[in-house]
Amino acid sequence: MTQKKAILLIDDDPVTNMINEHYISSQDGAAQITAFLKPQEALEKLRDGAMADVIFLDINMPEMDGWQFLDEFQKLEKTAKVFILSSSIDPNDIKRSKQYVSVVGFISKPLTSISLKRLMV
Amino acid sequence: MLADNHTSQLIAFLLSLVKNSPYGIITMDFKGNVTIANSLAAEHIGFPLEDSLDRPILDFTQHLPELSDKIRQCIKTGRVEFVLPKVSNGERFIAFKAKIISDGMLITTEDITDKVESEEIKRLNSNLMAKNKKLGQYAYIVSHNLRAPVANIMGISDILVTGSAPPQMQETLFEKIRTSAHSLNEILTDLNEMLADDSLIQEMKQKLNLQEEFETVASSISQQIEDAGATITTDFKNVRHIHSLKSYLRSIFANLLTNSLKYKNPEKPLFVHISAEITKGGCAICFEDNGLGIDLKKYGDKIFGMYKRFHKNTDGKGLGLHLVKMQVEALGGNISVESAPLSGAKFTIFLEQ
Lengths: 121, 353
What we know:
By secondary structure, chain A is an alpha/beta fold. Chain A contains five helices and five strands; from the N terminus they run βαβαβαβαβα. In chain A, strands 2-1-3-4-5 form a five-stranded parallel sheet. Chain A starts with 5 loop residues before the first strand and ends with a helix. With 353 residues, chain B is α+β, with helices and mostly antiparallel strands. Chains A and B meet through helix 1 of A and helix 5 and helix 6 of B.
C-alpha cells in the first residue's frame, strides 16, 4: 500500500507536465514523478532499466509522437500501465489506442483531480 | 422492269433505315420544304409527322426561334452544330447538326439528355467529394488543434480556481492562458479560411502586384521579423504581377514567412529571399531561407500533412504548410520543397497564369 509509485509524464509542453505533476503529487505525495519533454529520452531511461508503474503519454509531439513511442515501448516488454493523455477528442485516436496492449486508458486533456482519483485507486 | 423493281426495293430499304435510325433525320430541298422526316426528328423538334412532307421546315420551328436562326445560318455557312436545352417536352437536351447536302439540307437530331445529366452528376459528385474531404479536415482540426488550447485553458483555470497552485507557479499559468487564447484565435482564423468557398475563386481573382502584396504581409508581422533579426530580400522584376486571389496569396506569403521566422537557425542570422520567375504555363514563386531546414528523407511525405510538426520547442501548430498547400491547389497550382537539416528550405510555388 505504501509502495512508491513510479510515474512518467511524457509531453512536449513543459507547462502541461508541470500541471500534471502538480495534480499527481497533490493526490499521491509519495509518487515518484519524472517528466520528459521528449519520448526518446523516456525510452532511453526505460531501456536502461528504469521502473515505471504508470506512464501518461501525449500523442501529438514533434520528432517522435506518442504512437511511435508505443511501438518502441512494446518491444521493451515492460508492465507499466500507459494512459494516453491527449487533447484530441477524435474517436479514431481512441480506437487506435486500443490496439496497444499496454494502453489502459485514453484521457482527454486536461487531467483533473477527479479523473486522476478514478485512475489512481 | 427488273431494274425498277430493284430501285423501289432500294428506296424502301433506305426509307426503312431513316425510319429506324437512332437519330432524328429531316431533309429538305433548296426551297426549305421537308422531303424526308422520321418520327424521332418530329418528336425532338415537336411537330406532327403527318402532313409535314413538302411543307416549309421553318413552319415547324416557329416555337424554337434559335433553331430557325441556325437553319438560316446553315444556308449561309454550309454547316452548323449546336445543342438546344429544354426542347419539345421542356426537359430534354437535343443536339442538332445541320449541313448542306447535294440536293438540299440534312438535319440530324439526337437526345443527349442522359449524357448531359450524367456529366452534371459527375461534376456535382467531384464537388461533393472535395467538400467532404475539406469537412473531414475541418473536423480533424476541431478535434485536435482547436481542442489543445481549450484543454490547456480548462486545466489551468481548474488549478487557479482551487487555489492549490503555489504562487511561483501562478505566473506561468497566467502566461499559458494568454498564449492558449492567442493560438485559439489563430486556429479559428485558419478554419475560417479553410471553409472559404473555392468555387468563387475564379471570379474573385484579380491582378496583384507581388511586391505590394508581400510588403503588406511583411508589415503586418514586422515585430516578429524584427525580433528574429531577419534580413528579407525580394526580386519580382521578372514577374511583377500575377492574376490570383488576394486573400490566398497573402495567406501563403504569411504562412511561409512566419515558418521561416519560427524555424530560423539560432546559430546564424536569418536571410529570407522571395523571387518569381516566368515558367511554362505560368509563374513560379520561390521562397528561400537559411533556417533549420527539414529532414526530407525522414519526413518527406509528411511535410504538407495536417497537424505535423518537425521541430521541438516551438509553438508551431502543424497547420501552416498544410493550409499553404490547400490554398495553392485551390488556385490550380502546386508546391514543392527542397531542404536538408541545417541548410535552409526552399519552397517553390507554381501558379498557372
